[in-house]
Design a protein that fits this description.
Number of strands: 21
Order of helices and strands: EEEHEEEEHHHEHEHEEHHEEEEEEEEHEE
Low-confidence stretches: none
Strand order of the largest sheet: 7-8-9-3-10-11
Strand content: 35-45%
Radius of gyration: 24 Å
Mean pLDDT: 91
Length: 345
């Protein structure tokens, strides 16, 4: 099984990108905001930029080594690269665009991506989903050992995005290539990747399976990216073994985790319950506030109450008769919290 290994550093305008990563026959997603250094990583692997330091190798074969002055040209690296805007040649037909990647198996690739009927069309005549399929077919025409995807779904409308996401998920599973994709959308990363790394200002904050990042975010940014609630406050221990956190907006919550000083309290939306009145249960934490939004997500609804977002079933929302403006109580247990130091503290 092919293994891509990255260990390099490169200065960017406002910070230094530093990354150590190993990718075997799996898909790894780097997630982060625009300007975090994600696309620079792809360009370094493809040989489009020369990092300042470090190494890049496939199965021990060096593609780049700053100390040994090894820097393989892009055409000498077995890489298939799908750019964010797909970078198709507007004057070439679909078939010739794919053939530009490699002459072998073009017809088979057109058939595999269900675009053989578009062989004579030009990119300007294609939909967003069709252009994406052409970009993937061209990348795979090189018979690459490594696949690079730059924001593969960002150029698609919402309806097309869902369809193409499923198709791409199946494709990556079947290929079993070392695949590195970058995206700003955590949902895309969850759907497409076996592992996810969160990149911010050139630093890998945390990596793991999507489930690991959601269940145990190690950083406030990771928590917010994965959809968790983040409440800022000041923590102090108590004699009963709990940690009291006085939030910036004045209310107090409790956690079973030990901490002191400025912290972020992370609470996942599905750990927050909503009631009309404060329930008589084991939950220690209660915040009363009006509902500011109700956002349907399939058979669930995200309910915003003060600084918290709860995720309830549609049936629960209907049973409680919840509406925007209703004054309700959001509750969560001390065991359902995670305390992390705030960035810059």
């Amino acid at each position: 099984m092919d293994t891509l290994r990255l260990f390099f550093a490169h200065p960017l305008r406002a910070f230094r990108l530093e990354l150590e990563l190993e990718i075997a026959g799996e898909t790894v997603a780097l997630v982060g905001p625009s300007g975090a250094g994600k696309s620079t990583v792809l360009r370094a692997v493809a040989g489009l930029i020369r990092p300042e330091a470090g190494t890049i190798s496939l199965n021990g074969d060096l593609w780049f080594d700053a100390d040994r002055r090894v820097n393989r040209a892009p055409e000498d690296r077995s890489v298939g690269y799908v750019f964010q805007d797909y970078a198709l040649f507007p004057h070439l037909t679909v078939e010739r665009n794919v053939a530009f990647g490699g002459k072998r198996g073009v017809r088979e690739l057109l058939k595999r991506f269900r675009i053989e009927h578009l062989a004579g069309a030009r990119p300007g005549q294609l939909s967003g989903g069709e252009r994406q399929r052409v970009g993937l077919a061209r990348a795979l025409a090189r018979d690459p050992a490594v696949l690079l995807l730059d924001e593969p779904l960002s150029a698609l409308d919402a309806q097309t995005r869902e369809t193409v996401r499923i198709e791409l998920q199946e494709l990556l599973h079947d290929l079993e290539l070392p695949t590195l994709l970058v995206t700003h959308d955590f949902e895309d990363a969850v759907a497409l990747a076996d592992r996810v790394g969160v990149l911010l200002e050139g630093q890998l904050l945390q990596s793991g399976t999507p489930a690991e990042l959601v269940a145990a975010p190690a950083d406030p940014f990771v928590a917010s990216l994965t959809g968790g609630n983040l409440l800022a406050g000041r923590a102090r221990g108590q004699a009963n073994g709990l940690t009291e956190v006085i939030l910036e907006e004045g209310s107090t919550v409790y956690s079973t985790q030990a901490a002191s000083g400025r912290v972020g309290v992370i609470v996942q939306p599905w750990d927050v319950s909503i009631a009309r009145e404060q329930p008589a249960d084991s939950a220690l934490n209660h915040i009363r506030a009006p509902i500011s939004s109700l956002i349907p997500l399939g058979n669930r609804v995200r309910v915003r109450v003060g600084p918290l977002t709860a995720e309830l079933t549609t049936a629960s929302v209907e049973r409680l008769g919840l509406a925007i403006g209703d004054n309700v109580v959001a509750s969560f247990k001390a065991t359902g919290t995670r305390l992390v130091p705030l960035r810059g503290e």
